[in-house]
């Protein structure tokens, strides 16, 4: 399948890019990278292929001399938590996050619970491509231990939150891994909980896994009809959180990220990290609290790397993947939900009241289909094309893809690291201008295909 790792681990369609053999060899490669010893924590989401791939991954790890702690169906952040709690050498989560049910993949975590960096992924790539692993003798094969860490995880998170009000919360688990934790966790912190799609089901019949506004219409309706204080939605592995206000309106990811990050600042001049595709509202809100915003590549591992480098208080992506380093270095949608509740509780306001003063920005996103083998060529040519199309540009940022800053907005074009698309994101002060920028940008990209 060419290069193994994308923006968020190894991912693809089962039976095509992702096969049992590939995952077993990946397990062998991970074992070799770990020195053919040590414990690896393994979790999975409820996809129909996850059981099969879990067996393949564990087979590779065991035959490579590692011990395995099998968690079963858990959210991705629970794997990160368990690695730290058990002092394991590494962790592996079998998931394709928000992708459709035919997809699956593997995401790796180091001993600190942070996702593997590109440097570590490169080591795995070299071992895998060169088949430089070692299968141990029969009397050195590792063992498997079954462990339920969910009570520890829930207890630890719940112990960090003290709410003075009973909030009514509607939580949409999307039939994903959040189903085994989210309703319980919210009740544990004193919320009155209404659950939607809270039965793990690998076909994900309740709604598509991407927690986008068009996929959350039922959640919005239930929030309104039950007069709930808040709606919460998670993706397939619950490393992301999306918020619905008390009026049943999906809160833009950039705006809730800005509010939570500003609330989380420890002191004047404190830093937070976000990605190149986040709205300018983040700078305005965080800067208004005396904080500094650092931008990096799209992907939670890029955010985590910069958080560590700059000793930032928090970081996150507009998609709802937020990292709070005082708890852990992996994105945690369940912890994110608690942070939103803390924000409501501290402010004493409704979500819509917190959002009302924020400046108006209009962001549009479009995915342009592009075969994997064409991405590099398109991205090599798109910079010159965009600069010609937007001659009024005030600056260019090449942290990830190309972002062209304009007097009244910006446009970002980047290749997806998880899907066969070129992603186009634009922002402007008015809807009409945003549509105009998007139209010109997508036209430029399509001309290159």
Topology:
Layout: E1 5-6, E2 9-13, H1 20-33, E3 39-44, H2 50-63, E4 67-73, H3 76-86, E5 90-94, E6 103-109, H4 118-130, E7 144-146, H5 150-158, E8 168-172, H6 182-188, E9 192-196, H7 217-225, E10 230-234, E11 241-244, H8 253-264, E12 271-275, H9 281-288, E13 292-296, H10 300-310, E14 314-316, E15 322-323, H11 333-347, H12 351-355, E16 362-369, H13 375-389, E17 395-397, E18 402-406, E19 409-415, E20 421-428, H14 431-446
Parallel strand pairs: 3-4, 3-5, 4-7, 8-9, 8-10, 12-13, 12-14
Antiparallel strand pairs: 1-2, 2-6, 5-6, 10-11, 14-15, 16-20, 17-18, 18-19, 19-20
Helix pairs in contact: 1-2, 1-4, 5-6, 8-9, 13-14
Give a short overview.
Residues 384-438 form the Alpha-D-phosphohexomutase C-terminal domain. The chain is α/β, with parallel strands linked by helices and 449 residues long.
Q: For the terminal residues, how far apart are their CA atoms?
A: 21 Å
Give the uncertain stretches in residue-range form: none
How does the helix and strand content classify structurally? alpha/beta
Q: In CATH, what is the class of the largest domain?
A: Alpha Beta
Number of helices: 14
Helix content: 25-40%
Could you tell me the strand content as a percent range? Answer: 15-25%
Number of strands: 20
CATH topology of the largest domain: Alpha-D-Glucose-1,6-Bisphosphate, Chain A, domain 3
Instruction: Write down the Rg.
Output: 22 Å
Average of the residue pLDDT scores: 95
* Largest pleated sheet: 7 strands, mixed
Spatial order of the strands in the main sheet?
1-2-6-5-3-4-7
Q: Into how many domains do the coordinates divide?
A: 4
Shape: globular
The CATH homologous superfamily of the largest domain corresponds to Alpha-D-Glucose-1,6-Bisphosphate, subunit A, domain 3
CATH architecture of the largest domain: 3-Layer(aba) Sandwich
Cofactor: Mg(2+)
GO molecular function, one term: phosphoglucosamine mutase activity
Keywords: Isomerase, Magnesium, Metal-binding, Phosphoprotein
Family: Belongs to the phosphohexose mutase family.
């Amino acid at each position: 399948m060419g290069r193994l790792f994308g923006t968020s681990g190894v991912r693809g369609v089962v039976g095509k890019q992702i096969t049992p053999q590939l995952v077993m060899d990946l397990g062998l490669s991970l074992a070799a990278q770990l020195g053919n010893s040590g414990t690896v924590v393994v979790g999975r989401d409820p996809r129909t292929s996850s059981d099969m791939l879990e067996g393949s991954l564990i087979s590779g790890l065991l035959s490579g001399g590692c011990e395995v702690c099998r968690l079963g169906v858990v959210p991705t952040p629970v794997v990160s938590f368990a690695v730290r709690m058990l002092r394991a050498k590494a962790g592996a989560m079998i998931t394709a996050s928000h992708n459709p049910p035919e997809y699956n993949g593997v995401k790796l975590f180091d001993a600190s619970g942070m996702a593997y960096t590109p440097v570590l992924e490169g080591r795995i790539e070299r071992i895998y491509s060169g088949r430089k692993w070692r299968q141990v003798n029969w009397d050195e094969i590792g063992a498997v231990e079954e462990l339920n860490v969910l009570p520890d995880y829930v207890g630890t998170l719940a112990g960090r939150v003290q709410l003075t009000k009973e909030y009514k919360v509607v939580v949409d688990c999307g039939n994903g891994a959040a189903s085994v934790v989210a309703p319980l966790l919210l009740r544990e912190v004193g919320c009155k909980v209404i659950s939607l799609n809270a039965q793990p089901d690998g076909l994900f019949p309740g709604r598509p896994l991407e927690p986008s506004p068009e996929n959350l219409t039922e959640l919005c309706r239930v929030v309104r009809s039950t007069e709930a204080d808040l709606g919460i939605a998670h993706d397939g592995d619950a490393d992301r959180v999306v918020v619905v206000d008390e009026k049943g309106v999906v809160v833009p990811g950039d705006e809730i990220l800005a509010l939570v990050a500003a609330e989380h600042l420890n002191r004047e001049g404190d830093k937070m990290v976000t990605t190149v595709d986040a709205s300018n509202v983040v700078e305005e809100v965080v800067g208004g609290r005396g904080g500094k915003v650092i931008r990096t590549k799209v992907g939670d591992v890029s955010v985590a790397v910069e958080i560590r480098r700059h000793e930032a208080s928090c970081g996150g992506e507009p998609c709802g993947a937020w990292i709070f380093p005082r708890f852990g270095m992996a994105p945690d949608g369940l912890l994110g939900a608690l942070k939103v509740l803390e924000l409501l509780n501290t402010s004493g306001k409704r979500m819509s009241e917190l959002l009302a003063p924020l400046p108006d920005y209009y962001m549009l996103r479009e995915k342009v289909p592009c075969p994997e083998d064409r991405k590099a060529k398109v991205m090599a040519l798109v910079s010159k094309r965009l600069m010609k199309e937007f001659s009024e540009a005030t600056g260019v940022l090449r942290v990830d893809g190309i972002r062209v800053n304009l007097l009244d907005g910006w446009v970002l074009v980047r290749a997806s690291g998880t899907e066969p698309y070129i992603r186009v994101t634009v922002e402007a002060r008015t809807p009409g201008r945003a549509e105009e920028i998007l139209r010109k940008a997508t036209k430029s990209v399509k001309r290159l295909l």
